[in-house]
Design goal:
Blueprint (H helix, E strand, L loop, with lengths): L1 E5 L3 H11 L6 E5 L3 H9 L4 E3 L12 E4 L3 H13 L3 E4 L8 H14 L3 E2 L8 H7 L4 E10 L8 H5 L11 E7 H7 L5 H9 L6 E7 L6 E9 L2 E9 L10 H16 L6
Parallel strand pairs: 1-2, 1-4, 2-3, 4-5, 5-6, 7-9
Antiparallel strand pairs: 7-10, 8-9, 10-11
Helix pairs in contact: 1-9, 3-4, 7-8
Amino acid sequence: MRLAIVGCGSIGSELAEAADGMVEVKRIYLLDQNGKAAELLSTKLKKAIAVRNIDQELYHCDLVIEAASQDAAREVLPKVVGRGVDIMIMSVGVLVDDDYRNSIYSTARTTGARVLVPSGAVSGTDCLSSAVTGKIESVELITTKSPDGLSGITYLTEKGIDVDKITEPTVIYKGPAREAVKIFPKNVNVAATVSIMGVGFDRTDVTVIVDPGTDSNSHELRVKGEFGEMVSITRNVPSVINPSTSHLAALSAISALKRIIRNEWVGI
């Protein structure tokens, strides 16, 4: 298999290193807005080369993995599915736009491409995907992060909220997932994943809490429906490279890649 990885940050780097050790992977194409990041990462791997754009690589690529940003995903997705190549998306928030998402899915059905979304940094999605085939009463996601994981958010600046001055657990957002994904594009991709798997962006309730006393990125998923009730709590270790990203997100992508390569689907 030949892979293209878009984004050489924390998730992209871990994923590339893991893929480099998989015997099934023959070549890894690395692409990053910062060309030097892709080149530096390629020097650490045996099967990787840095490239400047994705277009040419689609002619001989089996899978593209986006691990950069919503902006990068928005640009790359149409190109990849239009060519009929499978793509794994980490910046799932890009799919919050209904027209854009439906367009991507429609193109993928026409070309035969698969749009793949790992579970990411939240557990309980297996239960949610099963439960949603019946009646669902409510889906709620409660995300708690440290100030480091929520710095530089335009929404907070406009609201006059300085996360570094918060001294106790404080709710900084409560509302539908649709707005949460737009406000926190790099912080709550799990909200997009849960919304797509479940009852949609408008019916999924999201609460974001900043807690100066925590050293983890936690996600509590609550689901109620005719199946019963489910509460799943995931306390993630933040990425060493990027505190706003959970290490489990990278592990989820690596796990998904292994299943794709080996065509093994246990627990789907």
